[in-house]
Amino acid sequence: MKIPSLRDISNEAKLLLIGIPVLIWTLLPIYHLTLFAISPKDSAFSGKLWPDHPTLQNFVVVFNQQHYFLKHFWLQLWNSVVVAVATGAITLLIATAAAFAISRLKVRGGRVVMNLALLTYFIPAAFLAVPMYRTMGLYGLLNNQWSLILAMVTIATPYAIWVLKQSSDNLPAELDEAAIIDGASPMQLFFRVYLPLMAPSLVAIGTYALLLAWNEYLYAFLLLSKDTEVTLPVGLGNFLAADDSPWELLMTTGLIYALPPAAIYYVFRRYMVSGLTAGAVKN
Amino acid sequence: MASAITLTDTTALTAPPRRFLNEWQLWGLILIAPYLLVFAMFVVYPIGYGLWTARHPHSYVELYDDPIFLRSALNTLIFLVIGVNLKMMVALGLSGFFIQARWWIKALSVLFILPWAVPSIPTILSLRFMLNPEWGLVNSLIFRLTAEDGPNWLNDPWIALSMAIGVHIWKSLPFWTLILIAGRLAIPADLYEAASVDGATKLQKFRFVTWPSVRTLYLTCTILSMIWTLGDFNSVYLMTGGGPADLTHVLATLGIRYLRLDQVDMSMASIVCALPFMLPLVYFMMKRLSK
Question: The complex's ipTM?
């Protein structure tokens, strides 16, 4: 082994000088969240960096719905799951079909549709929220979970189509030609050739839409209002309404709510990073 | 272009004439129809409806007379110009840090993604509690270290706005860093070797090798981030709630505020006022991406 020179040591020290602040900056809010979740009510506000008596009591309270704000915890968690899974599935269906039509079937006007979708992708979601709210009212969908699902599908599809079209364009044209020579119909090409080859991108896009819907707050609180219909983030936001809210329970619920997307992200990290960053900014 | 031409030529040759092509076009239309339906119902119609609602000139006069509106426009501008550029510069710097080959930097990069991977509500609220003047973690630490009371963070509009920008940076920094890391990794290593042979310093390597290679990507990222930041509702709404005294609103939260006050025309008008910020950025992105 080589003995490190003074230069190497100073180099490492410089890297650590960046690394440690980055670590603290990244983890502090999440650590603070966890700290509240495991602190008993009376010591949560003491400003300590570690509770004297860490406890899981808050989780018991949340799971048993033993607080006014948590009356519908399980139901709201379930609503979040339904909305996220439905958004993921519908987005995949619509976007895969559209990307196949544009990229492989070369449908007339496909380029125009692609550009319209791209333009939609650049509308900030918060700006579309107000007209969307009014429109859902006119369609009679307000306070119905379909309104949230359809809104999230609207927001997720443009990017989904774009990414899927990109990776679809990368598939060799010979595949289609071979299929045509074999006399395959467009649908056979779609199911036998296209879907299997696109699987990694489909996983990335499905996950993207699922997480988008799970994390959404603004649309959820605009479009849904009944306590039994709203998703979990809206339930969390309701804690803010009262001055004497039990922050330790809010943080506990927030931690439970934050865990699934983090876990999903890390499980599919391989797909997500290559699929999404490559798509997000074309070089 | 050339490849596209040859591709259509071969399909034309291999495919039996007319009838077959029609079947493909027909299926193409069927498959693209669901998206067109979603687009018409939930994009075209709402936007048309919104613009129709915002057609009265007096909404804009009223908006202009509302001091909150001008302050929000200013805040939005600060958010975009200072917030986004600061974030992108830090991301560019950190991307250089994360490509260093060390086991602990690799481990750190896995954790570094967390803010982006977890939903914003719990983490923003967590930060908000940290800044609570009486029992928040930050002021408790300040009190313990200096025996003096810390500032009332969210009660001063400028500090509160900075904190909202800080939350925004905390949340989206990992994503942009990741993209810039990908950009840096795409630079051929022999460029750096050649620069080393010529005796280039680190700064010179950045100036003459890294920057020219990632400049376009960096610019695209900045524009894209500005567009998305225009629509960042959560950072401001959950951190400051627009307060104190409605002085920290941005256009994204202002629209919702008017909606809650049942002033839909004002809400739409404030969004229309954001278009001059937005359209040049969108135009730039469309030119870059729709090839």
Answer: 0.87
